[in-house]
Amino acid sequence: MRFDIDRFREIIDTLTRNKTRSFLTGFGVFWGVFMLVALLGGGQGLKELLQSNFEGFATNSAIIFAQPTTKPYAGFRKERQWNMVYNDVERLKRQVPELETVSPMLSHWGGNATHGDKKTECTMKGVMPDYRNVEAPLLFYGRFINDMDIQNNRKVCVIGKRVYKELFPGGGDPCGQRICVDNIYYDVVGVDYSAGNMSINGRSETSVVVPFTMMQKAYALGDNVHLMCVTAKPGITMSSITQKMRSVIAKAHQIDPTDEKAVTVFNTEVMFGMLDNLFSGVNFLILLVGIGTLLAGAIGVSNIMMVTVRERTIEIGIRRAIGATPKNILGQIITESVILTAVAGMSGILFAVMILEMLELGNTTDGIVAAHFQVQFWTAVGATILLAVLGVLAGLAPAVRAMSIKPVDAMRDE
């Protein structure tokens, strides 16, 4: 089928003559495409916003901490207070080979950090260098705690974003300068700009992180460990080794291995799994609603083309009488349908992308985009292909009806 400029003008003229119906039908397709693209882009942006709360946090991790026992065991009554010790770290490394990282942590809340005449509240955290495998720092300046800091009990620290901005309002690299926390001076060696809302024992932005050994001595904590952060090796699910970890620690402290509250294991893997399942369901619902709206628009296109064919019965009969073949009639009706669907659909995609771009700009802080409210390139390509297919299908039934009209019958129609 050859498509020349005269035929294109004829098709546009036909659509213009039926502009009310064409507008209503096109709006149906426009709204369907707009809903599909806007929902997909909005869903992606919402997912990124939620995931930003867990940015830098290992998805295959768990947090172990001690609570009063809830069951009597080995002659001890329930509600017994107990604490984990540093030897528990070695026990887990030795007896649970499925673990990749076992990192102890100490914490102290309600501290005050000062630098010159500036002062801010902070949370002290004592960690080992491998803690970065659990909660990865986003270093804006300097470095993280290293092995030499641990071995030499160095008085060094890594400060969070909020602590940095309040103690050093003029900006610049604070590494090498000193801050005072609870009457102890620490040399700043790094600035952590992590913005995730999921942190262990206090948010990263208000934390002052020091070497584990230094905090043991500074706060006279002895051999105690407040909690342990662990990550599993690739291919190992944390839920499959949870009871094994609990049993190792429970045995060393004369605790019932079935006492899940006494040796609490908070499995972050479950939480991340729930989040993934939630968005899988949301994406399916978005596709269902969007495609349903698109199909409704395509049905509208088919209906308007049916009416158009009915109104143009005489015209079609005359064209058939002067030599137009069924193939010509078929091509014209389907082309009209595709043009109407494509113009409305592409307009819907363009408008949806503009709205999503505005949402993205509204979620920008300090030049950093919090979430990308946009659809992927191949999603837009897929929507375009779907539009073309729907345009052909929508025009197929009217085209078949037009082909079935006999010239004599058509010219008699009034």
UniProtKB/TrEMBL annotation:
Keywords, ordered alphabetically: Cell membrane, Membrane, Transmembrane, Transmembrane helix
Topological type in the membrane: Multi-pass membrane protein
Main localization category: membrane
Top-level taxonomic group: Bacteria
One GO cellular component term noted in the UniProt record for this chain: plasma membrane
Domain spans labelled ABC3 transporter permease C-terminal: 289-407
GO molecular function, one term: transmembrane transporter activity
Transmembrane segments: 21-42, 284-309, 329-355, 375-397
Subcellular location: Cell membrane
Keyword Transmembrane helix: yes
All residue ranges annotated as the MacB-like periplasmic core domain in the record: 22-247
Pfam entry (one): MacB_PCD
Similarity section: Belongs to the ABC-4 integral membrane protein family.
The protein, known as: ABC transporter permease
Organism: Marseilla massiliensis
